[in-house]
Amino acid sequence: MKSNSLVSIDQCTEEDIIRILDNAALFEANPNRKLLEGKVAATLFFEPSTRTRLSFETAINRLGGRVIGFQDAATTSSSKGETLKDTILMVSNYADLIIMRHYLEGAARYAAEITDVPIVNAGDGANQHPSQTLLDLYSIRKTQGKLNDLTITMVGDLKYGRTVHSLIVGMSHFNPTFHFIAPDELKMPEEQKNFCDEHGIKYYEHSVFAEEVINESDILYMTRVQRERFTDMEEYERVKNVYILRNNMLDNSRDNLRILHPLPRVNEIAYDVDDNPKAYFIQQARNGLFTREAIICEVLGITL
What we know:
By secondary structure, the protein is of the alpha/beta class. Helix content is 36%, strand content 15%.
């Protein structure tokens, strides 16, 4: 990668991505390796998280390292007015690696600029979520047997969804075709569409969640409408349940179709989908452990 921190998926070349995914497969075969003995990782979560935080902390533990940090910024000195800069510099005194989620876009990049300790971005506002992208790529490759020439349909909150923004960049090396399904209020931003145009990536926009589009897809990537990103609650109420995937909508879909979701889900995937063999979002979350083990080793320069 271009630095020893992972703040954005666009740092990763195609070769970087393949190497990290290959290492994740090695960790899936054997997740318990004492590669971090004597090392301390700090998890700084200024924004709520369940899967990301727990999978990173589990990865550190399975690699033999130790974890310090917090999951609620209200219990830290930032609640007293301490700046992000001072928090990062203070924690840098204690840790070999900092894993950070923050509500401000660009916070992870700023942190990486002010410390020599490697930073892993665990999500910054609506901007980037590179570790989620890598676990999504791992899940796609594992279920499809390849990354090249796939049709990926993204549904829901495409305006604020950092996971879909990052996935577009991650997949840009592999000649994807995208379908973007969103209401007007949550359409894919121009920045991401311009990126597709600049990289010769085909994409189609829809406002209707139609089975015809599902039936053309290899991956159906569902997202929740994120209440915490809205300043206008009336707007949130209008769009929160606009698209719901139900089991009968999959009747004529491709055999290889897999349904992904970064989780948590609210109402956008009905529970009758859970027993369908095409539902993969629980296994996808498990893949986060192996992928994050690989990411930790990558930023610390540990070879397998």
